[in-house]
Structures are given as C-alpha cells and as structure tokens.
C-alpha cells in the first residue's frame, strides 16, 4: 500500500519544477527525557550566559561557562561552594588557576584568597602569579620570619561570635591532639572557661587577646567563680583537665608551630588586594600545621568580609583534604551558612572520595557544594563513590575512568553532568603550568613573568 503524499506544490511558471512534499507519516509523541536514548552520550543543559568561561562541551562543541555567584543569585544552585575531584595529573590545577583565580579577577567586585600548599623552588606555586598581579603574598614559616595569624583576633570574634571563636579554638586543640576530640565533660569545659578568662584579662589590659592568655589560664582553678561550688575532688579533676589541654597547646602550637599563631596577627595581613596567597608550602606535610592555617585563615577571612561587604570571594584550597575531614571540617561546616551570606565560595580540590569513612563530617562537606568538576578516577571504588555521592548514572560513572587530561564531568545543581574540555589561552598555559621550567618560557606577545601586570577590571 503506497504511503500518503503531502500537498502538491508548484515553483515558478515551469511545470518541470512541480513536485511533491515528503510522504506524510503519523507522528509518535515523546518527551525530551525519552528522547535522550537517541543519543546515549552525556547530555547537559546550556550553561550560564553570564558565567566565567570554562571550556567547550565535548558533545556539541558549544562554549561552557559557569559562575557560582551568578548561579547562586539566580537560584540555580543553593550553595556557591565548589568541589574538584581527580587523580594527580588529570588537570585540576589548571582549571582552578584559570576558572577560579585568573578569570574571576577580570570581573568587578571579585577577589581570590588561595591557601598555597604545593612547593615549587622553595615557595608556593601561586607565589609568582601573586607577585605578577600585584597581590598580597603571606609566607607562613615555623620559627619566625613569616606571617602570624591570631585565632583570638577580634575580627574573628566579630564574625563568628564567642561561640564560633571558641569552636575554632577547640578545633585547633582537637587537631593538635591528632584529630581526637577533647573530653567533652572536663577538657572542653576547662578550655571554655580559660577562653572566657583570656578575653577578660586582655580587655582589662586594653590589648588583643592571644593564645598565651588561654594557656596561662588553663589548669588554674583558684578564683574561678564557675567552679566555686565544686568539691575538692571535682576541682582537682578540672585542674588536671586544664593541665592536659595546656600541655597539648604548648607542645604543638607554641613549640612545633612557633611563629604561626603565638601572638597578634601580623600588621601586613589584609584583604586590600584582589589576589591573596597564604604560602604554606614550607610547613610540614604531616601534622596539624596546614590544617590549622587553613582554619584560622578562613575564619579571619569571614571577619574581613563581615566588615567589607560586596566582594564575591573564592577561598581556594588546592590540597583540600584537611578542609573536608576531621575537626577543621566540622568547624568550617558550621560556618557554611555565614560564608554564603557574606559572599564566600569555598573551592576545594581533593583526589579520592572512597577514603572518607561512613558517618564522617567530611561527607556533609563533600555533599554541600553544588558545582562539581569530576576529573579522571582510575580506581573502581572511587568511581563508585562519585556515583553514590553525586547521583551519577552508569554512563557518567564509566566515563570517569576514561577521561583524557584536561577533560572532566561538570555538574551544576540538579543538571545532568556535561563532558567538558577545559580550554586555556597561550598566556594562561604559561601562567598556570605547574612545571617550573615551563613557567620560565613566555609565549610571543606576552609580558615576561618578571614584569608585573595590572589585574583587569
């Protein structure tokens, strides 16, 4: 039986051009969701028109752009935080340096604060970049000669309140205690009372409180009104608990980490620059140093943003495991609501998810960001963890094991993941290359790295 034909049409005056439209076929109704099966490749929605350029969609070739602040303002996402996951050498660092440091600086009212952990020629890998863009470079050194951050700084108190600043102090003690929490009934109470007394002593003297005020009050029970009704045995136990915390803080913060937290914040520390780098590359890789600098710097930043509003700020930790695990993660998770209200986006990069134990505070920190850049994962358990945490389908999960360098799956809010290739300009390739030898080469037409450049506005 012949198929029905469409209407006959004539073109011009010559009958030889007469013809017929294609045969009529009854349509079959469907939906865009059902239609995805026609192309099983990764399909994502168009990205933000006002976003920061990321690269190109590997399926369509279209440009890909995204900015957590504009997406948050338009309610596309509920959290401006960003998580980048992938094995070493997959391209995470290049993305972070361009999409979350260099390119945002081209926008008005944007700022970047970097915790720089990777060593390159005796300093952090962001140091040269920070100097080039006339940013503020703070070198954290044990033994003196570097920048000092005061956990009891009034700026932190103004941002977090007394309970939040005490939470930071307790996180420092817990992390110094190899991550084990203080005894909540005795040690925590001893620290809490010592903290309150330290604030009172400093206020009476008309100066800024420091950690030495806290350690000086630990172990002292005479004259403490809160313990006046305690039995001699209870007072002695509180004395012992205070001494335990005192020895812990003295041994780690005052001795092992001398010069980092044992005094007022260095006068040069400010956020007047658009790009700020805390160079922690020379601190011990093992131990509490890097975690504590991240925690205190983050709290200090919140205090600054509370006074100086209106700047969208990326707080970037490229080796960010300490920010999603242990006591530091718990404290930073408690500050997430405050961070969102003050225009702060935490940008964290880690290597693996499968190492996070069930019930860990790290789980909430990993799940909180709604901008995800998922780079290659060679191990099956890591791909399965990504699928479980971020609700990836089988196609996306399999793709995680086959991504080339510079490619990743980008997932924003509830959108399906998109296969993206990060694209850099020739100048950006030089500025963001992690190999120090490459950084000494300059592409034609680019200013030598020894010369400074104004940050575009």
Q: How many H/I helices?
A: 16
> From the helix content, strand content and strand pairing, which structural class follows?
alpha/beta
Strand elements, count? 15
Mean pLDDT across all residues, rounded?
83
CATH architecture level-2 label of the largest domain: 3-Layer(aba) Sandwich
Provide the gyration radius in Å: 28 Å
Task: Describe the protein.
Mean pLDDT is 83; it is low at 436-457. This protein has 457 residues and is of the alpha/beta class. It is globular and about 90 Å long. It is built from 16 helices and 15 strands. The strands form three sheets. Strands 4-3-15-14-13-5-12-11-6-10-9 form an eleven-stranded mixed sheet. A two-stranded antiparallel ribbon has the order 1-2. It folds into two domains: 52-148 and 272-439, P-loop containing nucleotide triphosphate hydrolases (Rossmann fold, 3-Layer(aba) Sandwich), CATH 3.40.50; 154-256. It starts with 7 loop residues before the first strand and ends in an 18-residue tail after the last helix.
